[in-house]
Amino acid sequence: MNHAPFIWAAYAVGAVVLLWCGLAPLVRKNTIRRDIRRLIQLEEVERDSHA
Amino acid sequence: MTIEASIDAGGAASTGIEAGAGSMNKAFFALLRRDLLLAFRRRTELLFPVIFLLVVISLFPLGIGPSPQLLARIAPGVIWIAALLATVISLDGLFRSDFEDGTLEQFVLSGHPLTLIALAKIVAHWLVAGLPLVLLSPLLAIWMNLPLDSLGVMIVTLALGTPILSLIGSIGVGLTISLKRGGQLLSLLVFPLYVPILIIATAAVMAASDGLPYTAFLGLLVAGLITSLTLAPFAAAAALKISLS
Amino acid sequence: MNTNATTMTKIKPRKNWLVMFIHKLGSPPWFYNFSGKLIPWLWATFAALTIWGLYLGLYVAPADYQQGESVRIMYLHVPAAWMSMMIYGLMAVMSFIALVWRIRMMEILMMSSAPIGAAFTIIALASGSLWGRPTWGTYWVWDARLTSELVLLFLYLGVIGLHNAIDEPRKAARAACLLALVGAVNLPIIHYSVKWWNTLHQGSSISLTGGSSIDTSMLWPLLIMAVAAKFYYGANLLTRARIKLLEQDMRKGWVKNVVKEQTS
Questions:
Q1: Interhelix angle for C169-202 vs C104-136, to 10°?
Q2: Among residues C178, C114, C158, C172, which one has the least CA distance to residue B190?
Q3: Record: contact B195-C193, CB cut-off 8 A
Q4: Which member of A21, B163, C137, C159 has the greatest number of CB atoms within 10 A?
Q5: Helices (H) and strands (E) in chain A, counts
Q6: Nearest CA of chain A to the CA of C141: how many Å?
Q7: What does the domain layout of chain C look like in residue ranges?
């Protein structure tokens, strides 16, 4: 039996899982940054309206 | 309030025990008695885990085929797995009704150690849900064609193991009690913890049917029971404190 | 006035530095800043070690006498399995510290570790399965290590699931910490009972790595990959912890300042 496909498959699974594990939080980070920026904008609008 | 009055009120108030020196034993037995009385009030509900157990065991011959040799080989595992499933199903009721109507918070406020309260409820749970499993096991053994010389060991493993299941399971219940779908998450949480008990108990029964020595396995179960009896109530109490916070 | 000056000079500088460092780590803005500088170095080291390790493992090292080329999966499977257990152990320690001393930073680090540990467990299971097919002929074998890894995966999923199910973040973290601790106490028991179960039912236990000692040409890539995995964990852990901090402290001043600085 040729072992090569199994070796490649194993390392491919490893790469995919580690990539996903590494990148998934960055996606979340963008969403959070957007929310924070919105919060800052709301704050500035409020401050300007009081000024 | 006396215990009788609190039971009439649906158990919503304290059981009339004040914290004080020497009252821990009284508190334990009062709570145990209360839980048992409450459980026996709805006698039909007591039968649900029993019926579930009987149904699950019946499914195996139906799904695998009635060959006596095959059933005999898988009997110890099947009976024990059915016991695990039945325990997890009945565990959810361990703290839930008291949690929902606020009685649990009353117990915490009563000043008695939460560990003791947890232990009393676990004992009540085992008497109501675990003990019937032990008593039913001869019937299950006959259905699954378990060799009769290992029946004694099977009963002993269930008698030693089902309390461990209740004890360890109570920790999972304590953690999930405040969740809406707590019951489903509960099985995921406790099954990995149940794996050693399953392995050792079935190993004991299989050794007995093969005529091999089995006392070492039973010794391990005894050790497991003593360890969980001393440690699990503390963990369950800690879990309840987190859930109530 | 003089006594104050003399007591201050009596403090040993080295002890002061370490204690201060640990204290600073507990402060979210300082941790955010410090870890942000550290992360690129961790990634760089991970990349370098991985390339070196893969080069040694996939090209330089010889095939196994008994297993042939499939032994090369070992350089992925064994480090992943080691990481899955090490991370759970670290989670248990962090859980203990978080529960006893109520340190929020520890809660965040613990919860950030869980998905990484689960990922390594999945890699260990998948690579073990793919290793088993050419070696033993089947994709799944209930051997001691794979079965233990599977139960470990369930433990990880339980911690992650419990944490996600509770809404209030600190309550969720405390519940998950308690569960992780209970799991950690049970883990040796589970591990040994599975090992024992395997010998009971299969006679001689066959291990993928074999009982004999490993040749140095295979040991080196294995160790390099193991160290590389730790750098991956460090980089990913800090990344996730920073993001959780941003999320939890969204309304606090330091977060707004950080985001303002980044967009400017």
A1: 30
A2: C158
A3: yes
A4: C159
A5: 1, 0
A6: 16
A7: 70-210+221-255
The candidate with the shortest Cα–Cα distance to A28, out of C211, C83, C248, B226, is C248
First-to-last CA distance in chain A?
78
Instruction: Tell me if residue C64 falls in helix, strand or coil.
Output: strand
Cα–Cα distance measured from residue C96 to residue C99, given in angstroms and rounded to the nearest whole number? 5
Task: Determine the distance from the C-alpha atom of residue A27 to the mean position of all C-alpha atoms in its chain, rounded to a whole number.
Answer: 2
Reduced to 3 states (helix: H, G, I; strand: E, B; else coil), residue B127 is helix
Give the C-alpha separation, B93 to B28, whole Å: 19
Burial of C208 (0-12, 13-18, 19+ CB in 10 A): buried
- Tokens at B207, concatenated: 């050794």
CA distances from C35 to A32, B31, C5, C9, C23 (A): 18, 52, 35, 31, 15
How far, in whole angstroms, is CA C96 from its chain's centroid? 16
Q: Which residue has the tokens 């089995």?
A: B214
- Closest Cβ opposite residue C70 in set A7, A35, A43: A7
What three-state secondary structure class fits B51?
helix
Domain ranges in chain B are: 3-244
Q: Tell me how close the Cα of B186 comes to any Cα of chain C, in angstroms.
A: 9
CB count within 10 Å of CB A12 equals 13
Q: What is the sign of the dihedral through the CA atoms of C163, C237, B235 and B112?
A: negative
Per-residue pLDDT of B179-221, as tens digits, reads 887 788 998 999 999 999 999 999 999 999 888 999 999 999 9
Backbone angles phi, psi at C64, to 5 degrees: -75, 150
Phi and psi, residue B177, nearest 5°: -65, -30
Q: What is the value of ipTM here, to two decimals? A: 0.89
Which two tokens mark B179? 């969740």
What average pLDDT does this structure show over B100-128?
A: 87
- Which of B138, B153, B158 has the alpha carbon at shortest distance from B80? B158
According to the model, what pLDDT value does residue C211 have? 53
**Distance (Å) from the C-alpha of residue C173 to the closest C-alpha of chain B?**
10
Within chain B, where are the H helices? 3-8, 24-41, 43-64, 68-91, 96-100, 103-109, 114-125, 131-143, 151-176, 182-209, 215-244
If phi > 0 it is left, if psi is from -120 to 50 it is alpha, else beta; for residue B145 that is left
Of A6, A32, A36, nearest to C70 by CB-CB distance is: A6
Q: Which residues of A touch C68 (CB under 8 A)?
A: 3
Residues B180, A6: Cα–Cα separation, whole Å: 43
Nearest by Cα to B178 from C104, C107, C106, C174 = C174
| CB-CB neighbours of C253 under 10 Å | 9
Chain C: partners with 3+ C-beta pairs within 8 Å? A, B
**Whole-angstrom distance, CA of residue B244 vs CA of residue C9:** 49
Which residues in A lie closer than 8 A to residue C256 (C-beta atoms)? 36, 39-40, 43
Specify the pTM. 0.86
CA diameter of chain C: 81
